[in-house]
Structure formats: structure tokens, C-alpha cells
Design goal:
The structure holds two protein chains of two kinds.
Chain A (H helix, E strand, L loop, with lengths): L6 H13 L1 H21 L5 H16 L2 H14 L3 E5 L2 H14 L4 E4 L3 H5 L2 H7 L3 E4 L2 H9 L15 H12 L7 H18 L2 E4 L3 E3 L4 E6 L3 H7 L3 E7 L3 E2 L2 H16 L6 E6 L13 E7 L3 H6 L14 H4 L4 H8 L7 H11 L1 H4 L11 H5 L6 H15 L4 H11 L1 H19 L29 H4 L12 E6 L2 H5 L2 H9 L6 E4 L9 H5 L3 H14 L7 E4 L2 H15 L5 H11 E3 H7 L14 E5 L2 H6 L4 H9 L3 E3 L14 H4 L1 H18 L3 E4 L2 H13 L5 E4 H6 L4
Parallel strand pairs in A: 1-10, 2-3, 2-4, 4-7, 5-8, 7-10, 11-12, 11-13, 13-14, 15-16, 15-17, 17-18
Antiparallel strand pairs in A: 5-6, 6-9
Helix pairs in contact in A: 1-15, 2-15, 3-12, 9-10, 16-19, 20-26, 26-27, 27-28, 29-31, 33-34
Chain B lengths: L2 H14 L3 E5 L2 H14 L16 H9 L5 E3 L5 H14 L2 E3 L10 E7 L2 E3 L4 E5 L3 H8 L1 E9 L3 E2 L6 H7 L4 E6 L4 E2 L7 E2 L6 E7 L6
Parallel strand pairs in B: 1-12, 2-3, 2-4, 4-7, 5-8, 7-12
Antiparallel strand pairs in B: 5-6, 6-9, 10-11
The chains are: A alpha/beta, B alpha/beta.
Chain lengths: 716, 211
């Protein structure tokens, strides 16, 4: 559970997490195993179709929650259960405590429930004198340690067998082995007596089927079955977002949830409970059965035009599994109660702004979560939207306001960039890198060399003559992007050489501004929308066949976010869609135009590793063209496992969280070095900045090049 | 998929999650197999269910509740099959429990159940068990033996949606069971038998008409 008061404290917590070598190794192994296994897990399944169906079905259910709830109550009560409704977390805890009191229960066994974690139910019941025992092995371990879960599905992934053995030795009062199999059996025996002596069982539920009033619960260990069978009272605490119309929707989710969570086709057990079943322990012969539905903000969330999709979440935990930040710091530092990308969002709504204000900053916007989500939630977008609310809900940070002010004023921004070149001289010593970073702005940023501003921005070197054929086949608008215009103009210039004197007309519209992504990342969505409108106004999509950018970040922002940002303004949304359709990245464009072929075959090929920018491979969905282009250009493309992992830049992220950014970068550098590559190629100037900076600082034997430089420049 | 393909897929998928799957000709063969499994199995301690480990005193006491003879629980057999099983158990020196299973939470060696149907896509057994004894037989036994008619194997979970909805039309408890109880909560090492059975055997009776 992340509890820092401010960003400084939070960074300290993150630094500690980075020092936890066992956790680092465990999470890293898991990240790699999960990534490698995921495709096989969905073999024979139309994954995209399933994801779409789950999303659609959940959305439909959320739009009729009231009706589903009424139906569920009617059916479940007819079958002998008592249904309760709790508006808030405290109310849910009160109801459950009251059920315990009314039925003279004192010993409670519990199976895993994120909803009960959400309401801090155990603390509440323990404070009232009840004995509550978690029976899921991982949950029991962390309960004994007084911790919260560090992963939604594997709550004790941060602990070693040695720690568990020490813990079990304490608990049993007998020395325990470190053999995992033996430790598991000790837990089996210790917990079995708890089931026998308990008078109340508390479970969660994964599904609440309205049509029949049935609960569905997935589990591997089998403790759910004991919790719901042995004690005379059963209370299920269920978020109202688990309501679905029929068993069909449950079976649908069941096809995706275990596969995405742990790579199982299905969990060992799925338990379906309708109403009150026979119970030997109960005086009446029937289970004393209660179902407590928790709202806690969900019904309002369900009505929200943007955030309702957060309720599609089926709690598989995959968004943490693929998150490069989670992989380094684990769930205690990367969540309040709900962990991973969905946690960044739900924490704001369930636990408030204060609990989320540091967490929400800790996102690279790398989109890995969006790609893996089994319910098709656009997690990165929702994170950005929460970020805006967090920013605007409190005192506005100076950086955001200032950036908003400057970036929206194009001439001022460009003038500042130009004058920056003179101001930087003392720190660059005329090299292409900044030697000594101005400490105030860039504390803890010594892990990479930062580039200096170019002597002459691209806009001052642009010559339209070679790009103005008399009868052009294609008319292309070049979107330069700030980084390439002012820092890396050579990337644009070398790439454009491929297009010169041919059949393509390239137009560079001088009044184009920043794409607006930095503002969007800072939570300044209004200013970002203004910039989007400005750029679309400057480059009318009707005038061009393509809007070409060499920057994956600009490209994905224009393609994905312009339509969102401008959707609310009548007419503009349509133009934004038209604009977005025409945006194309450099590699795809070169492949489509059939350019970039190597002039001569070479006996000994240069080995090129590739870094897939997040905004290209996931943001724009471009995967094959860059790799094929490298081969077409005569390179020997050498693959590595971390190709699609974020480089750690994330725009301003690397300045806010330099330690994490540096560690992610290290991992990438090591993976590339292992391939023995001569050069590392990528499609985004931001990634070039991060990767080249890291390679320079670490004196790696490979050069980092933008694709445009790689296919037009000299081979090594 | 036809019946034999579904049987084949079920077998493969269930084995993939460490279940033992056998084809038997008749229910009598299934009963004999069950008694054999129990006879060959040593008492629960040897199966590493935890009895041999140093436990806290209350947990030790629970172990003491268990009679030190081997036990089979078979709560939902036809009368005729129960009769046959009683006689097989008697010959093998094994106790048979037909009801009141909650008193045996310390451990039952083998639980025998009849599965209602199965889903071949995932190797899943579906057991309708509002009866508490049947439920417990599949939960607290160390080995779970389930008998399944090959005619009751369906290809996909969607194919059984209506049957499930039928079960759920009144108060009900239905279990999907796929392989043995498992956990990976310590260092992600897969370990079988954390709370439920350590072992699952599925006996497929082939050639019988669907029940």
C-alpha cells in the first residue's frame, strides 16, 4: 500500500523497492515468463474477438445495473439468500459485522476478495473482536505479516520461501523447512482446523448472474469451496460491477480471465452458488446465506461517459504483469489497494485523490496495459483523464501551468527554443551533449547524456525545391515535431533525402506547432485540445494524402488522442478523425512507397537491433514494417526479448522518476548488448534521446540511430 | 467434434493439468479401480498431506480425529453400486463413508463421485453438488476419483450454458473441477493439493448412452 504524503516521499519508497533484490528478481522472471507464455495461452481462441465481446457485454451490463440488481435480488432471495446493499465501504463492513453479531459468530474464515481489501474488512472485523483468517495461501501469508497484497492474483509474490518458512516457524511454534512443497502442506493442515472451527465464511465473487441469482467464484486452491461449505453462515461481498445478465456472459469472461491472469485455460475450481444450500453445521439444515453488494462509487462510475469502462475490469492483474514499472517496484509501491494500471484509476474513485496523487504520476504511458487488457479497457487514456482531475483538483503545479502557457503560444515557444541554444553553451562545451546539467531542473538525471539543441533547427534548413515535383503522385504534409525540429533536425534531413526528386510532394507548413502530447501528459487537456485544433487547421486533411511524421510519439498522439480531445467540439471531431486517418509513421511510409532498398548486397552485414517505440508498436499498431525495412536496407536484423518494452523515457516521466527510468533503460541496454548488435535502431526521437544517452553514458559498443539515419546513412 | 474427438480432447486437457485419466468398461471396473487406488495409497501422512510435519497443537489434534484406517467416501452412488463397493472395501480392509462427511475434515483417503458432465475444451468436470456430503467428498479427500460417461462430454462451455441455467433455477451448488487443487503462491512454484485433493483421477466409461 502506497501511503506517501508527497512525491518526494513516494520517490523514496520507490527507491527502497528498487533495492529489494529478491522482489526484483521474482518480478522480472515473472514478467518474462508471462510475456513468453501469453500467446500460447490463447492458442485456438480468437483473442481480439473475445476481448471485444467481453468489453461489449460488460458495458451493456453496466448500463442496466439497477435492473440487474433487482432481478438478482428477486432470484437469490427466492432461493433462500438474503441480499444487502451497501452504499459505501463502511456500510458494507457494518452490515457484515452485524450479520456476524446476529448469528453469534466469532470465528471467521475468508477466501480471497479484492472487494474486501477495498473496504479493509479484516481490520474492521478484527477491531470488533472477531477472529478473521485468510485461507488463500498467499493472503494468509501476508495477513500473518500484516501486509496488503502486492499483486491482485499472486498476493505474496514479493516473498521468498525463506521468509515464508520463518513466518510459519513462528506461527506453528515449530521449526519449518524451506521446501515449498512442505510449507504448502503445513498451511493445508494449519488452515484445515480453521475451516472446521469457523462459524462464518466470507468470500468475494467474480460473477453475480442476475437471471438466476447465482454467484460464480474462481479459485485454484479450493479454499473457496471450504469457506462456502463448512461454516454455517456464508457472506459474499460483491461489487455491483460483477452483475451480469446470464450464465453465458460469465462463461465468456471465464474464457479470458484465467488465461490472461495466470495462463491457465481455466482455474482448478469454479464454484457456482445459488441461494441457501443444505448445511450440516447450520441448525436449520440450510446455510445462512447473505450477499452484500457494494457500490462505493460504482453506480456513479457506470454512468460516466468516459470512465464507465473501468468497471469492465475482471481483476486478472495482467495490467501489472506487463507494466515495466510494476516489474521493478512491485505492488506495494505501485498501488494503494488495487494494483497496476487499473489501480491507478480505481484508487482515485474508490479511495480518493489524496491516495492517488503520487501514483497517478507514475505512468510511462507505454500502453502495454492497454494491449493486454482482457476487457479492452483503454487504461492509458483513463489514467491520463484521472491525472487531469488530480492536477486540477488541487493546487496546480507550476510546471504544468507554465508549459500550458508557453506551448500554446507557438512563436514564444519557438523563440524560447532558439534562445535556449545560446543559454546551453556553458553546459555543452560545444559538444552534441549537455556536459553538466543545470542541477535545479535535472537532479538525479545523471544516468544518461542529454542532447544539446541543434545549431540550426530543421525549419531554418528546409528547402522545398527537391520535394516539389511537377506532377506529384502523392501529396504529403510533414509534421516535424519539436524534438526533431530543434534537437535532431538531421533525422528529418536524412530521411527526406529518400523522398527527394521523386514522385512525392512534401509540404512543410511552418505554422505547425507542438503536437501537444507533453501537455496531455501533464494533464493540461484543454491546452492540448487547442494545439490539436491549431495543427489540424494548419494542415487540412483534405489537402494531403498523408501526414508524415518521423516521431512515433507525435504520430500516436495525433492518431489516437486528437479525436478524443476534439470530440466534444461540433464538427472538429470529424476533422480530427480525418486527420488521424492520414497520419503515418516513417517506416510504414517508406515501405508503402517501396523505398529504402539497399543499393548493393554486402558480404558482411551490419547487425541491427531494434527498439519498438511504445507509441509505434502499441500506439499506432505498427509492428512489421520497421523490421522488414531494416532487412530491405541490407541489415541483419537481430531480435531480442525486450524489443517492445518501454525505453523508460515517457516524456517528462524520466525527469519525475529518474531512478526508475534509469533502471528500465539499463535492462534495455543489457538486452541489446546481448545480441551483439552494431547499431540499435528505433523510430522515435524521444527513444533516440533516452537510448543514445544511455549508450553514451554506459559506453556501450553500439550506436543508436533513428530509422531515417539508419537506412540512408553509412553502414558501419 | 464427435464423441471420440471430445473424449480425446478432454483426456489431453485434463492430463495437461496433472489429472490421471483412464477409460474403463463398466461402473464395476470404476469401483474396483477406486478401491485399488485406495489400497495402494499409503495413509495420508505418506502422501505428504502434512500430517508428518510439525504442526501447532490444534492442527495436530485434528489429525488425531481421523481414524487410522483408510477411508473411501462415496455419497452419490446408485444403491446397487454402493452394495458392490461395500463388499470390495470389506475385502480390502477399507472403511466406507456414505454420509456425515463434515465429521471427517481431518482427511478422507479417497472420495468417489459421479460427474454430471464435462467440457473437453478445458478438461473440466461439472458436478452438481447441492448435497453437502457430495461436495465435501470432492473437497476434503486426498484423492478424488470421478466417474464420467463419454456421452456426457461437451466440446465447449457455451454448450452447457442451458444445463447450468437449469441447475441454477433453484438453490444450488455446482462445481467446475479441472485438475487437482493447486497453488503457486510461494515463489510461483506450482504445488498441488493446497486445500483440496492432491490428486484427481477421471474414469471415463466409454460406450454408454448419455445419462
Amino acid at each position: 500500500m502506497q501511503t506517501a504524503d508527497n512525491l518526494g516521499q513516494y520517490r523514496k519508497q520507490l527507491a527502497e523497492a528498487l533495492e529489494n533484490t529478491f522482489q526484483r528478481k521474482a518480478l522480472d522472471n515473472f514478467a518474462v515468463a508471462y510475456r513468453d507464455g501469453r500467446d500460447a495461452n490463447f492458442a485456438g481462441i480468437d483473442r481480439d474477438g473475445l476481448i471485444e465481446n467481453i468489453g461489449t457485454a460488460k458495458d451493456a451490463a453496466m448500463s442496466r445495473l439497477d435492473e440487474l440488481f433487482r432481478k438478482f435480488c428477486q432470484k437469490a432471495e427466492a432461493a433462500g439468500a438474503k441480499v444487502h446493499f451497501a452504499g459505501s465501504d463502511v456500510e458494507a463492513n457494518e452490515i457484515i459485522s452485524q450479520i456476524a453479531a446476529e448469528n453469534n459468530c466469532s470465528r471467521i474464515v475468508k477466501s480471497k476478495s479484492m472487494t474486501a481489501e477495498e473496504t479493509l474488512l479484516n481490520h474492521f472485523l478484527e477491531n470488533r473482536g472477531y477472529e478473521v483468517i485468510e485461507t488463500d495461501l498467499g493472503e494468509w501469508i501476508i495477513q500473518l505479516r500484516g501486509e496488503g497484497p502486492s499483486h491482485m492474483v499472486m498476493p505474496a509474490i514479493h516473498l521468498s520461501r525463506n521468509e515464508v518458512s520463518r513466518l510459519f516457524s513462528e506461527v506453528t511454534g515449530k521449526q519449518q523447512d524451506t521446501d515449498i512443497e512442505k510449507l504448502v502442506k503445513v498451511a493445508r493442515r494449519e488452515l484445515r482446523q480453521r475451516f472446521v472451527s469457523a462459524d462464518m465464511g466470507i468470500s468475494g465473487a467474480n460473477f453475480a448472474i442476475a437471471e438466476t441469482g447465482t454467484l460464480g467464484i474462481v479459485s485454484n486452491e479450493g479454499n473457496v469451496r471450504l469457506v462456502t461449505t463448512m461454516p454455517r453462515v456464508h457472506v459474499a461481498l460483491v461489487g455491483i460491477d460483477k452483475l451480469i445478465p446470464t450464465v453465458f456472459e460469465a462463461l465468456q469472461v471465464l474464457k479470458g480471465l484465467p488465461r490472461n491472469a495466470t495462463g491457465q485455460a481455466i482455474t482448478s475450481y469454479v464454484t457456482w452458488i445459488t441461494g441457501a444450500n443444505p448445511s450440516a453445521a447450520s441448525g436449520s439444515g440450510r446455510k445462512n446465506m447473505h450477499i452484500v453488494f457494494l457500490d462505493n462509487g460504482r453506480s456513479a462510475l457506470a454512468k460516466d461517459p468516459v470512465f464507465s469502462q473501468a468497471l469492465r475490469c475482471v481483476r486478472c492483474g495482467a495490467c501489472a504483469n506487463v507494466c515495466p514499472i510494476y516489474r521493478l517496484v512491485g505492488g506495494h509501491a505501485y498501488g494503494h489497494i488495487y494494483i497496476g494500471a487499473i489501480g491507478l484509476i480505481l484508487t482515485y474513485f474508490f479511495h480518493g485523490r489524496d491516495k492517488d496523487k503520487n501514483l497517478i504520476e507514475n505512468c510511462l504511458n507505454c500502453q502495454a496495459c492497454k494491449q493486454v487488457c482482457v476487457a479492452g479497457i483503454d487504461l492509458p487514456r483513463l489514467i491520463r483523464e484521472v491525472h487531469t482531475m488530480v492536477e486540477h483538483g488541487g493546487k496546480k503545479p507550476v510546471l504544468s501551468s507554465l508549459a500550458g502557457f508557453v506551448l500554446k503560444r507557438r512563436p514564444l515557444f519557438h523563440a524560447l527554443l532558439r534562445s535556449g541554444r545560446y543559454a546551453q553553451k556553458p553546459v555543452t562545451g560545444n559538444s552534441p551533449y549537455m556536459r553538466h546539467l543545470p542541477g535545479v531542473f535535472f537532479r538525479d538525471h545523471e544516468f544518461k547524456a542529454l542532447p544539446a539543441l541543434a545549431k540550426k533547427p530543421f525549419r531554418d534548413q528546409w528547402d522545398p525545391v527537391p520535394f516539389s515535383p511537377a506532377r506529384p503522385e502523392y501529396r504529403v504534409a510533414l509534421f516535424s515535431g519539436c524534438l526533431q525540429d530543434f534537437v535532431y533536425p538531421e533525422q528529418l534531413l536524412s530521411g527526406l533525402r529518400l523522398l527527394a526528386g521523386g514522385r512525392i510532394e512534401v509540404v512543410f507548413v511552418r505554422q505547425q506547432g507542438c503536437c501537444g502530447l507533453p501537455l496531455y501528459m501533464l494533464g493540461e487537456h484543454e491546452a492540448a485540445a487547442d494545439l490539436a485544433a491549431w495543427n489540424i487547421g494548419s494542415m487540412d486533411p483534405g489537402d494531403y494524402d498523408y501526414i508524415l511524421t518521423f516521431c512515433a510519439s507525435c504520430g500516436s498522439h495525433m492518431k489516437e488522442n486528437y479525436p478524443h480531445l476534439l470530440a466534444k467540439q461540433p464538427g472538429t471531431g470529424v476533422r480530427a478523425e480525418r486527420f488521424a486517418e492520414k497520419v503515418i509513421d516513417f517506416s510504414s511510409f517508406v515501405m508503402r512507397m517501396g523505398l529504402g532498398e539497399a543499393k548493393e548486397a554486402r558480404a558482411e552485414k551490419t547487425r541491427a537491433a531494434y527498439h519498438a517505440p511504445c507509441h509505434l508498436c502499441r500506439g499506432m499498431g505498427v509492428r512489421n514494417p520497421p523490421r522488414r525495412l531494416l532487412e530491405r536496407a541490407g541489415y541483419e536484423y537481430v531480435a531480442h526479448g525486450e524489443e517492445e518494452t518501454c525505453c523508460g523515457l515517457g516524456g517528462t516521466y524520466s525527469f519525475k522518476f529518474p531512478e526508475i527510468s534509469a533502471t528500465i533503460l539499463d535492462k534495455k541496454m543489457a538486452a541489446v548488448a546481448e545480441t551483439g548488435a552494431d547499431i540499435l535502431v528505433t523510430d522515435c526521437p524521444g527513444c533516440v534521446m533516452q537510448l543514445r544517452g544511455g549508450a553514451q553514458k554506459q559506453k556501450r559498443p553500439f550506436e543508436v540511430r533513428h530509422m531515417a539515419e539508419a537506412i540512408t546513412g553509412k553502414k558501419r | 467434434m464427435n464423441r471420440s474427438e471430445r473424449t480425446e480432447q478432454f483426456t489431453q486437457k485434463a492430463r495437461a493439468v496433472s489429472a490421471t485419466v483412464k477409460t474403463v468398461a463398466t461402473m464395476d471396473d470404476a469401483l474396483a479401480y477406486t478401491v485399488d487406488v485406495c489400497a495402494q495409497k499409503q495413509a495420508c501422512a505418506i502422501l505428504a498431506s502434512g500430517c508428518e510435519h510439525a504442526l501447532s497443537d490444534p492442527a495436530e489434534e485434528l489429525c488425531g480425529l481421523k481414524q487410522w484406517e483408510k477411508l473411501i467416501a462415496a455419497p452419490n452412488l446408485e444403491d446397487r453400486d454402493t452394495e458392490s463397493l461395500i463388499s470390495l472395501c470389506r475385502q480390502a480392509g477399507i472403511g466406507l463413508i456414505e454420509g456425515g462427511l463434515a465429521a471427517y475434515a481431518g482427511g478422507i483417503d479417497v472420495g468417489l463421485s459421479l460427474a454430471d458432465f464435462a467440457i473437453s475444451e478445458t478438461g473440466t468436470l461439472v458436478i452438481n453438488c447441492p448435497d453437502e456430503d457430495l461436495r465435501l467428498a470432492t473437497m476434503i479427500s486426498e484423492v478424488h476419483v470421478a466417474v464420467l460417461n463419454s456421452g456426457d462430454i461437451y466440446a465447449d462451455s457455451y454448450d452447457v450454458a442451458d444445463k447450468l441455467a437449469g441447475f441454477f433455477a433453484k438453490s444450488d451448488y455446482t462445481a467446475f473441477i479441472t485438475g487437482a487443487s493447486r497453488t503457486a503462491d510461494i515463489e510461483r512454484v506450482l504445488t498441488l493439493g493446497v486445500h483440496g485433493p492432491l490428486d484427481l483421477h477421471v474414469l471415463i466409461i466409454d460406450g454408454q448412452p448419455s445419462s
